[in-house]
Every structure is written in structure tokens, then in C-alpha cells.
Amino acid sequence: MVSGTLFHYRKNSWPPEEYINKSTLQLFDSDSAAPPSQAWRRKLNSHVSKLKEFSVTFTEAIKMVRLGIRLWSYVREEASYGRRAPIDPFTRERCKPSASHGVPLGGMGSGSISRGFRGEFKHFQILPGTCETSSIMTNQFSIFISRNGGNKKYASVLSPGEHEGLGEASDHGISSWGWNLSGQHSTYHALFPRAWTVYDGEPDPELKVSCRQISPFIPHDYSESSLPTSVFVYTLVNTGKERAQVSLIFTWANSIGGVSHLSGDHVNEPFIGEDGVSGVLLHHKTKENPPVTFAVAACETQNVSVTVLPCFGLTEGSCVTAKDMWGKMAQDGHFDRENFSKGPSIPSSPGETHCAAVSASAWVEPHGKCTVAFAVAWSSPQVKYMKEKSYYRRYTRFYGTSERAAVDLVHHSLTNYKLWEEEIEKWQNPILNDDKLPEWYKFTLFNELYFLVAGGTVWIDSVSTRTTRPGNEVKVTKVESSYKNGVQREQTAYNGYGEGNHLSSSDKLSTDSDDVGRFLYLEGVEYIMWCTYDVHFYASFALLALFPKIELSIQREFAKAVLCKDGRKVKFLAEGNWGIRKARGAIPHDLGMHDPWHEMNAYNIHDTSKWKDLNPKFVLQVYRDFAATGDFSFATDVWPSVCAAIEYMDQFDRDSDCLIENDGFPDQTYDTWTVHGISAYCGGLWLAALQAAAAMAMHVGDYAFAEKCKGKLIKAKAVYEEKLWNGSYFNYDSGSSSNSKSIQADQLAGQWYMASSGLPDLFDGAKIKSTLQKIYDFNVMKVRGGRMGAVNGMHPNGKVDETCMQSREIWTGVTYGVAATMLHAGMEEQAFSTAEGIFIAGWSEDGYGYSFQTPEGWTMDGHFRSLIYMRPLSIWGMQWALSMPKTTLDAPKVNIVDRIQVTSHTPQETGVRKIAEKAK
Fold this sequence. Notes:
This is Non-lysosomal glucosylceramidase. Belongs to the non-lysosomal glucosylceramidase family. The chain is of the alpha+beta class. 29% of the residues lie in helices and 19% in strands. The strands form ten sheets. A nine-stranded antiparallel β-sheet has the order 1-6-7-8-9-16-13-12-11. The protein has a five-stranded antiparallel β-sheet with strand order 5-4-10-15-14, covered by helices on one side. A hairpin with a 6-residue loop joins β7 and β8. α12 packs across α21. The longest helix is centred in the middle third of the chain and has 28 residues. The radius of gyration is 28 Å and the shape is globular.
């Protein structure tokens, strides 16, 4: 735990007074209109730099040339079938990545839209696995102000005008709008899931404007957090001596990103809803995917009048052009009320864009205040994958599958956003008010959660139907599931998973009260694989802390997968050899890509059934989750898979010393970093898995298995320390290669999980602290003075290990994990200093600009690899170390070094009996 005084100072503090005039802040001191005292901040006129992508060295290129050729051939082959390869380094996005991201819109699992800090909407991920990165510049908020009977007027888009794609002001598209905002006196403040933009006298010097963006990301709320909607609340303060007529408009293109707006057959339709909520529906048809409907709306009140322009175009031939729309607002400050009765528009033609505008107008008295609220929602009820399989998203359980659900969503948003904010503040305030924590840590902790929205998440309703084209079932194998109590069951697996091809009541993940559907999130927007497990090991702390039922459901998915075999042949690209897709007893690398849950292991660089870290990571996560939740039903369900996962690893103990060996290829999450013999990383995970399995075996009453794991651990630990401990840290591996004595930042990953699960330390405390201090002194402080994070590999002579691309990289999520391990060991100062390097390089104004798109890693010269990546969620492993749940702290300490003894009347006996009954 953090001491009471160590971090009382305000290092890397960004007080709002440095960005906004104090008098302006006081004007917004009520109704949450003022930005929080702790947040990530930018001026709207901040320079937006292009990001630098990584490149391999000549030596690395030579080593990977065969892999590159095979991967290129595989990418082309997949494209010929109309599919996207899960890893495609050869295709670049149309727009280069830039340092302009902000808080994304929406809840989890129903598609997402990102919004840059300057106000642009981009990174549309409405369709699973597809990310359209370009900004849609038509999607904007604009303001029109009239004073003194119209003698003094201001009009501007509320986003700075230096954007790509804007043409001449004389055309009929959005270039004709008033891009007058300089951004010099406007600032952005981010504290996920909310963001504030304050216009301090822009464009009208006597009008102060605050816009706060709110999305329904509410921990432990499994309904609101699934909703695809966001609210924008404008607070207007008139500091002048005359009343002002203020009109805000929200414009939106009928598009799901990219060039989809040009595909034709899109329809816009005005609507008037309940409680003054009115706007426009934009019905968008896709070629091969289910349709999407947007609702853009505002809330009419006693002082706010709402009007709409249901349809306008961007070219001269349009019936109403963007230029016409702007002129109408500049002249009248509103649209015609008759527009609500126009009905659906004529479907757009190919090459034509349909856009809509919603206006909210109000009078603001001298020194008066007014609030105007807008919302956007999107209804995309079905998720469709290859092989004609589709599912209903989680939110349809509450709002149905109609395309008009979008109307209900914006109505719900505009009438409930204040309740959302109350719950968000209850969750965040205890951490924000903790003066012992560095300020940068507090707001980065929350902002890294952006990935649970923008990381391509999919959340489906577990009782939704799935349609399948007749005759496409693929029968794969017979699966035997062995229970330790002697009960054995056999079932047929189809497509590598489960029985049959239709969801049924038996597919429910738990009891009805715990049924939260099925959840997927990508490894990264560039690595299209669902729930990549070796990375989930790091990221899962966020889900366990905030949405534990989702975390347990994911573990159940992998537990079921352990007991299945998929015998279909796959070519592994690293060596060019063939093997089966998944072996029984092996944890899959991921839950698939084109057919998740039914065609796992989309990753095909290496044969992951031979990886050494996946099975131990499964055992460790299962025990940690069980210890944190105290859910004995979960323990019952997954215990056979834990046993199978442990027993599967016996084949990798080549010399019968109870310690697994690596096989001379990159057979773990560092999949370009070869390991020979015993590995500090995988071996440490194996030791931890044995201890966790023994502890869990005692909880579920399988004492024979506990004794078996205990015996293995005692032998394996002695060998591990003898072969790897060098007096100050554990060597990278037991081989004789040039990097065998390297200092690996992640070498204590197993110990991290022991401490996180309330289990005894793997090693003597002096060895743990010595190792962590070595990592801090070398991997952290010898890289730009500790201002970049922890490099993965460092030679004992103080030079970075450049054996391969990954050894010389700084991995953001691993650095957070190392910091968490330091916190558990009582090394608070080193922990926050280590993690602060990620903040400085990635999030600070002096850094490389990776905010809200934290990559997998970067090099010492700031070249990134794989933006918007899962692993940095491991910052929540630090928070776990700071505030472990009472269930974990109070759990019975099972020290398997001692003889296993359980009395006949221990409190745990009741739980064992329940488990036995359920197993029968």
C-alpha cells in the first residue's frame, strides 16, 4: 500500500487554472459544467503531430524474411476469399495516425466512435473488427450568436479550421461553413468516460461555453454500460450586458465511416419523441452487414427550442446544400418547424451524401445561464460474422431489435445522463480525492479505460438466436471432459467448440442472475483477434475490478475451450509447417476472428498449443478471479479445465525435474524473442500456476491434486533458482545464447499474480526486491533517465538487448505490470517512477502523442507498434495492488509448502459439499 506521505506532492499536476481563466471556472461551478480539478488537458490549437511507426532493423528483416513472404502470401489468400487477415503489416490506413485522439463515445460492446480533442469524430468501429480511421468532418457542433437586434453576430464551427479535406470556402460543401475558431482560448479536459470542452470567449468574447461529453460507462452496471449512445451538455453563460440569442447545431452524415456515405440507398427521417426529445433518424444500409440507424437529437425545454433539417447534401446538385443550411442558420438561427412533418427522404444515390442537422436555440439573459443537451445514438442490433452467423447485441435485451430503438436510446440518454454522472462520480471520487497518489496516475488510470469502448468490443446477449446457413456445420472431434471425482462425460464438438451450432439455454454462462451475455474485445485494432489470452492476462485486472461478471464469463469461455480439440489443419507461418488448430488441454491463443467461439486461434504465426505461458496464465487468472469474487459456482465449473491445463504441461518437462522447458523458439507472448531451456518468464509463471492450482484444489476439496502440485512445486522451485538466480536477478533463460543473462523486465510476472491473489510469495522477499531493484536501475533508469518506461530486455552491462524487435521495445502494459509488482513488494517510489515513464512518453504534452490510442509498445526513439492495444489496461493491476478486495485479503492463506491438512469442520467444508453436489 502507498505510504501516507510519499506521494503527497503534486508531480505532473495540470491544474485547470493553467488552462482556463479562474473567473470563467467560477461561472461553471455548478451542474458539473466545470472541468474536474484532475484531468488530461489540451488547448484546441495544440500542434497535432503525425505519429512515427516502427520499422525493423536490417538484421531483424533478414531473420524474418521467410515469415514475411509467408505472411504476405497468407494476407493475399485471405483477401481473395473476401476476408481480412488477423495480422496484416502490409496494408496501411488511408490517413496517417496523429496525436489528436480524445474520449470515445458510447458504452461497451455496441460499436464505438472516437472523438478527437479538437472536436472531430473518427475511428468508427460500428462493424466488428472494422475500424474506419478517417474523420468525418461533416459531423460537427456549430454555434450562432446574435446580439443587439442582429447588429452583432458570431458564427463558427466549434472546432479549429486546420483540417485535411476542407476545400475552398466558395464551394457548396462544408468548406463554406464558418471555420473561425482559433482554439487559442478553448481547452479540452478528459477524464474517461467524460470530457469537457471549454470555449472561453470563442467565438463571442462575452459568451462562455462549456460542453461536456458523457457516455454510460458505469462499473457493475451491466445494462447501462452496454448502450450505444452519448450525450453532449452545453452550458452557456452570458457575461455581456445585453441578452443573446444562441443557437447550437449538431450536424451528422449518414455514414458509418470511410466512404460508406457514398454507397447509396440511405434515408433520413425526422422524428418528434417524448419529453421534448426530437431529432433525425439516419437509416444506413450496408452491403454485406446488418443495417445501422443513427439518431441525432436535442431536448426541448421551456427555454430551448428544437428544430431540424432532415436532409442536406454536400454538392451543388443537392436539393439543400451544406452552404444553404449554414446560410439559413446564420440568418434565422433556426430551421422551419414544418420540417418535422416531411417524412423519410428519398434514398440517396451512389456517390451522394445525405446529412442531417439538429438545432437548439435559446435566449440567454445578461449574466444569465442556459443549458442545452444533445445526444447521438446508433442502433446496430445484429453482429454478423463469416459463415452466415449473427448474434444480437447486449443492449437489444433492453431496447429490442427495431431500427427505431435509436429513438428510445437518445430519449433514455437525455433523461438519465445526470444519474449516469452521479454513479460515475461515486466510482471515481475516492481515487481522485486520494492525495497520496500522483495526479498523473489518477487521470491516466481512468483514461486508459478508453480501450474497453474503443478497442473493438462486442457484447452479445447470451440468449439471442444465431442463424446459420444449412449444412455448414463442421464436425471436428470427440471431446472427453474428465472430472476428478470420477465422473466422465463425452460430447461432440462442432467447429472446435460446444455441441451443435445453435445457442440454447444450456449455453448460458451461469445462472440467470449472473447472465451478462458474452463479451469480446480485440487484442488491438491492428491485431484482429478476439480476447487474446496471453494479453488478457495483463488487461483483465480492469474487467475484474469494474465488471467482474464479464471477467468470469470470459474465463468460462476459455475453460470450456480447454477441453475441446479442433483437428483442422493450419499452416504456421513462422516455420511453414502444418499442425492442428488447437490441441485438447491447451488454452487457445484467442477466441477467433471470423467465427469467434467456434473457430479459435486466429493467430497462426506459431503453433500456440506449444506455447508455455498460456496454460499457466489460465490457472493464475482463474484462481485470482475466484479469490477476488469468492464465487464457488465459478470454481466448480472451471476446475476440470484447471486440472487439464496443468496436466497438459507435463509434456514440456523434458528431464522430469518438474520444471517446464522452452523449445528454442518464441513460444510465449514475446513471439519474436526466442527462449532456450528454462525461462525466467515462463518458468516463473509455471511455479505460480502450481501454487495457485494447489490452493484452488484445497478450496474445492481435491486434496490429491493439491498434494501433486505441491510436490511438483517444491522440486521445480529448487531447480528454477539453481539454474537462473545469479545473485541479483533471474537470468532470461538457462541457455548459452548472447542474451541468456539479459535482465527481462517481466521476469516476475508469476510473483505479480501470487501477490495479487493473496497467495504466499514464490521467492524469498530479499530476492524479489533485489530483482525489482535491478529492473528499475537497468531497464527503467538507463533508458532516457526513466522517462519512457521499462525496456523489455537489458544486458547486465547496461546496454539494451537488441536480440530482436521485442527485446528492444518498451511495452506499455508490461511496464504497468512491473510497477504493480513493485507496489506489492512495498517499493512505492520505484513503482510510480516506473509507470510515470509511460505517462511522460505516451500521454504528456512533451511525449509522443499516444493519448487514447496507447500502443503495444515503442522504441527508444519513439516509434510505436500497434496503436489502440489491450495490454495497457494493466494499469488497473497497480490499482489492484493499492486496494485489493476484502475477499482476497481475508481468504484463507493456503501455504502448500506445509503439509496439507483440513479439519472436518472448517468453514470451507460447506463450500466443498456444495461443489460436490453441483458436480454430481
